[in-house]
Amino acid sequence: MGCPPVSASWPLKRWLGLGLGLIILQCITLGCAQEKKVAKSKVGEKVGLPCCYKIPSSESLQNYRVYWQMNITDVVLAYSGEKKIDEHPRYINRTKMDFQNLTLWISTLEILDSGPYHCIVQSLQSSPDKPGSHLLCEEPVTLFVTADSSEPNIEREVTASSCESTEMVVRCSSHGGFPKPKIYGVLNNVSVVLNTTWESESSLSPYNVTGTLWLNVTKDINFTCFIEYDGFVRSTSLLLAKANDCIVSTALPSYNVITASSIIIITFLLAISLAAKYFPRHACSHCSKNQDSVEDHEKESMDPLKSSKVTCEMSSL
Ligand SMILES: *[C@@H]1O[C@H](CO)[C@@H](O)[C@H](O)[C@H]1NC(C)=O
Ligand SMILES: *[C@@H]1O[C@H](CO)[C@@H](O)[C@H](O)[C@H]1NC(C)=O
Ligand SMILES: *[C@@H]1O[C@H](CO)[C@@H](O)[C@H](O)[C@H]1NC(C)=O
Ligand SMILES: *[C@@H]1O[C@H](CO)[C@@H](O)[C@H](O)[C@H]1NC(C)=O
Ligand SMILES: *[C@@H]1O[C@H](CO)[C@@H](O)[C@H](O)[C@H]1NC(C)=O
Ligand SMILES: *[C@@H]1O[C@H](CO)[C@@H](O)[C@H](O)[C@H]1NC(C)=O
Ligand SMILES: *[C@@H]1O[C@H](CO)[C@@H](O)[C@H](O)[C@H]1NC(C)=O
Ligand SMILES: *[C@@H]1O[C@H](CO)[C@@H](O)[C@H](O)[C@H]1NC(C)=O
Prior knowledge:
The protein is α+β, with helices and mostly antiparallel strands. 30% of the residues lie in helices and 38% in strands. It has helices at 3-30, 245-278, 280-288, 291-300, 302-316, and strands at residues 38-42, 47-49, 64-70, 74-80, 83-87, 95-97, 104-106, 115-123, 134-146, 153-161, 166-177, 182-187, 190-192, 195-199, 207-217, 221-229, 232-240. It has a six-stranded mixed sheet with strand order 1-9-8-3-4-5, with no helix packed on it. The protein has a four-stranded antiparallel sheet with strand order 10-11-15-14, with no helix packed on it. One 2-acetamido-2-deoxy-beta-D-glucopyranose (NAG) binds next to loops.
């Protein structure tokens, strides 16, 4: 019973959808999207900015006047016929215009080259309906010049350490990026906000960025730092190990114990071997044997023998 009204509303919805689709299609074909023409390149590289007119191969630039402008009114490069009539000092030796499709090539790009450009094409030839020179077309294009930010570098500094935890400051930095980069960290899959500072000479200069994190590490943790600028992402990882003070404090005494006991054992062994060499054997030989062997020994080493001789005589008493 409630079904017919619902189905009756379907065609209306369809028509509305189709109408909207037609408007969007019209926008695309008639150039609504043209307003947003964008070119992107990097510092030091070369870029071609497209114009709105292509000179037919049967003709030459001779009958045209072309202006490439920036910031609405500043002339970057201008031609009247095949003759250069104007050039911006900042672009000298860095620009070239294609004489057929009027593309403006800019080389050794600088961040300052970023901005809104447009080309204006005029015809110098009169036509029956348009006497004198007249505008053929005008089209804007926005240029974005980006600069690569360096691979993020992670440094850490332990500020306090105990058996249970290690307090540390972790700093992640990257330099030379443009536009202003974003920085964030991930601790074992969990993203963390870094206390971020940016340094730059001006809003149109490369940025140095540093993100800082204060951590209390109770077990080894994997830290990854991400730098994001203009859709590019670069990252670096570092395993933040807990400084294990417990092992360090027990390892040191055990090392001392080993050293001390080694010294005692070595001294003891030396003492035994010395005693064995001079004491019992000599005592026995001196008491029982003749003086010759004693004299032989005396030639080799005098003092120990004398003393052993004394003890020998004493023992024989
Ligand atoms: C213009 O011509 C140059 C070659 O001369 C070509 O590289 C460039 O892609 C062309 N640009 C357009 C927008 O057609
Ligand atoms: C466009 O404007 C920016 C910022 O004001 C300036 O730095 C740049 O030199 C201008 N470009 C030209 C071609 O004048
Ligand atoms: C442009 O190039 C010419 C010839 O290579 C050179 O003499 C001139 O100094 C250059 N000008 C600038 C502003 O770089
Ligand atoms: C971290 O992410 C990886 C891949 O997304 C997953 O395999 C792993 O289990 C995650 N670890 C933790 C501790 O969530
Ligand atoms: C970030 O660091 C600055 C300077 O060290 C400090 O003043 C500020 O409170 C910190 N912010 C946060 C959220 O930790
Ligand atoms: C950015 O870092 C680089 C390299 O560390 C340094 O040479 C430069 O002076 C820094 N720039 C600013 C604006 O601090
Ligand atoms: C770090 O953790 C330890 C043990 O969990 C705790 O005693 C200490 O107060 C913590 N330090 C900070 C700065 O949170
Ligand atoms: C740390 O995490 C990153 C990204 O999740 C991964 O590529 C890397 O292998 C991990 N390193 C260690 C030591 O677990």
